[in-house]
Amino acid sequence: MSAEDLEKYETEMELQLYREYRDVLGLFGYVVETERRFYLTNSVDLQVRSVENGEVYFEVTMQDAWVWDMYRPARFVKNVRVVTFKDVNVEELAKSEFELPSDQ
Question: What InterPro entries does this protein map onto (predicted)?
């Protein structure tokens, strides 16, 4: 497989992942971004923890999440637990942005 073939394959995988993301986005209420992954979920719990030396870390738990990762064979995950010293971003999605217009 040439470098060009590999690049084309990765581009196609990213496009397929974006399309899947677009299709499932309306099913979820939160976007969670960590240093390694991007998640969609309806249930997220973010806890700020500290260790004895004063360092702070974050513990994030999610249920029934969708993971942005083109190398995963299955992107829906029942339970996720992330522990990180890096930033965590949690955003609530505005449902009105994703609702289909009603026929009136």
Answer: DUF2469 (IPR019592)
Instruction: Please state the domain count of the chain.
Output: 1
In-domain check, residue 103: no
Q: Would you say residue 43 lies in a domain?
A: yes
Low-confidence ranges of the chain (pLDDT < 70): 96-104
The domain containing residue 54 runs over which residues? 3-92
Give me 77's structure tokens: 């995950």
- Tokens read off for 55: 């360092």
Reported as half-sphere exposure (CB side, CA atoms, 13 A), residue 78 has a value of 0
Residue closest to 49 by CA, chosen among 89, 92, 82: 82
